[in-house]
# Entry
Amino acid sequence: MTGMVEIDDVRKIYDGGFEALKGVTLTIEKGEILALLGPNGAGKTTLISTICGLVTPTGGHVRVGGHDVITDYRAARTMVGLVPQEINLEPFEKVINTVRYSRGLFGKPRDDARIEQILRRLSLWDKRNSAIRELSGGMKRRVLIAKALSHDPRVLFLDEPTAGVDVELRRDMWEIVEELRADGVTIILTTHYIEEAEAIADRIGVISGGQLLLVEEKDALMQRLGQKQLCIELQQSLSELPEALADFDLDLCDDGASLVYTYDTAAERTGIARLIAALTAEGLSVRDIQTRQKSLEDIFVDLVHNTGNKEDAA
# Structure
């Protein structure tokens, strides 16, 4: 079974020798939401631009809907919608003409009903005859989304689409994403709002230094790499950890009255029972116990940090 987007050993070396992509291989299925996470300069935008045909790869192949983005560019590009980071719109053009023009660029026949539907869904219909320069930053971002959807793409790229926008637009954006997914549209999202990726993505990809560190189903990733923390509130405060507790992965909070114990959920033994026994043996009384699951942000930071350390060592 072939994917909607197939990336095979893609490399990109810019003039001057900078290697932005280092052999990226990835298959994205129809109707899937993939969140691509990575620090600034990791290669996210270069990868998206390569898939969209805006950047020519130095090596490897990319296919969208079975169409090679180089040898069958027109067919591949027609299937793709892109919401870029930068707001680059004609300031004196009307909103409705801007969106109509984007649809026409892809060879689609004029469809005023469809354009109206898109503009209404994005709360732009009342602004349809306004010049772009009259809009707020959030409204301009909505126009970018409308442009990307105007030709009914089957693959939608969202490159930091909610960066710096209001809460209302962010909520509307994710509602639209869910509607598109239900219609079978494949969505690739890059974001710095990791909680959004954690909430809506099917799979998580982590890219750093031009390399894809992993791509895994979100729930499986959380289970495999996630750790839990046991927050133990004590009846009394401590100035330092007793020596008898040194073997446990414990942190003493600043108030001295709380301990944080980190443990692996996949381990055969968590060590919690042994820890409680050790606390009792030390004469420490427990007031309350709470658990916290390690977040996707924690996992992401650990992955990128560990990769950076390996590169420094090399």
Remarks:
- Confidence is low (pLDDT under 50) at residues 310-314.
- The first strand starts at residue 5 and ends at 13.
